[in-house]
Amino acid sequence: MRINFAPLRIPLRRRVQTAAVIQWVFSFLALALCCIALFIILLFSCFWFVPVLYATWWFWDRKTPYQGGRRSHFVQNLRLWGHFRDYFPIHLVKTADLDPKKNYIFGFHPHGVLVAGAFGNFCTMATGFSEKYPGFKPHLLMLPLWFRVPFFRDFIMSGGLVPSAKESAKYLLNRAEGGNIAVIAIGGAPEALDARPGALTLLLKNRKGFIKLALQFGAPLVPVFSFGENEVFDQMQNPQGSRLRKIQERLQKIMGISLPLFHARGIFQYSFGLIPYRKPIHTVVGKPIDVEKKENPSQEEINEFHQKYIEELTKLFEEHKTKYNIPEDRHLTFI
Fold first, then answer.
1. Is the peptide bond before 89 cis (omega within 30 degrees of 0)?
2. What percent of the chain has a predicted confidence (pLDDT) above 70?
3. Which of 153, 158, 184, 290 is exposed most, by the fewest CB atoms within 10 A?
4. 118 with 185: CB under 8 angstroms?
């Protein structure tokens, strides 16, 4: 394999941006493992009282992730996230005003490999979310597994992340003061296995739980499409039915997380590595779809509204695709 090396005299600005992205790529798994290791090491050292005290507090605080979490204005506004934004770069595109007296569900598509657009736009303030949507608090829903990791749970909660469980979503949508946004990557972990440049296939046809939630709480649904989300990483070929895909799907069922074997570029060469490609991401937030509250919606009502959501998402994509270098003859596919 021929490796193309980047110029060694990399500008300081780009070095800082690359460092910020490296931190993001490896933070979740590596930092989570480090937190677990630190907890165990301290437990069997002369500082054993630190993990014991933390475990006691953790038990007392165990419901916090499911009750809106504990966001930190300081963490969300770190300069680090500005460098992260500029690396790709990431843009947040607003198309309609929202009522801060209401709670909303944002349906985020596509998942991509590591939901870079969702993280950059809704877990940090680097792309101007608070200016574009004043009075709102976005909460990206994430696999509950990560909230069981000591120390790490506090880090991700500081970014406004909450577990992707009905309990946490219901808490946000039931707040009388309004201004809460539950951001759900609808395709979830399984969709990440199909994330690669050029992919326009969304796992949505049988995903209806978020529709039921919207109906039960009368929460308007907002389709969100992140153009460029699938362009920042490639991954090994894993077509349906292949041995690799079967192993990935089996692990996903056991662990709850998918394990796409992704790759992109390196630090000093552009041919291979785990650093994402410098491809722009434009996250376009669509118009809200008003929902009439029905505490016990019928399956027919859920199916009807699900179809309406697909139509609005398709409309959003078709209206904006040519602005972001997607050919006119390319369309979304739902599975």
1. yes
2. 91
3. 290
4. yes
What is the dihedral sign for C-alpha 272, 276, 278, 282?
A: positive
List the 137-142 sheet strands across, edge first.
90-94, 281-285, 221-227, 104-109, 180-185, 137-142, 162-163
List C-alpha distances in Å: 124 to 20, 160, 257. 13, 9, 23
User: How many CB atoms lie under 10 A from the CB of residue 37?
Assistant: 10
**Token pair 């790490």 in the structure block, residue:** 152
- What number of residues does the chain have? 335
Q: Residue 230: which of 276, 190, 161, 285 has the closest Cα?
A: 276
Burial class (CB in 10 A: 0-12, 13-18, 19+), 178: middle
Contact yes or no for 206/335 (Cβ under 8 A): no
Distance CA 293, CA 288 (A): 15
What letters, b where the CB count within 10 A reaches 16 and e where it falls short, cover 95-112? eeebebebbbbbbbbbbb
- Quickly list DSSP for 246-269: HHHHHHHHHHSS----EE-B-SSB
Output the DSSP codes for 222-249. Answer: EEEEEETGGGS-EE----TTSHHHHHHH
**279 and 232 in contact (C-beta within 8 Å)?**
yes
**pLDDT band at residue 25 using 50, 70 and 90 as cut-offs:** low
- HSE-up of 258 (CA within 13 Å, CB side)? 24
Q: Check the CA dihedral 49-55-56-57 and report its sign.
A: positive
Q: How far apart, in whole angstroms, are the C-alpha atoms of residue 123 and residue 69? A: 12
pTM higher than the cut 0.85:
yes
Q: In this predicted model, which residue has the larger pLDDT, 189 or 180?
A: 180
Name the one residue in this structure whose structure tokens are 């909460």.
139
**pLDDT at residue number 14:** 67
Whether residue 168 contacts residue 64, with contact meaning beta carbons closer than 8 Å, is answered with no
What tokens were used for 189? 């972990």
Closest CA to 219 of 317, 110, 107, 69: 107
DSSP assignment letter at 218: T
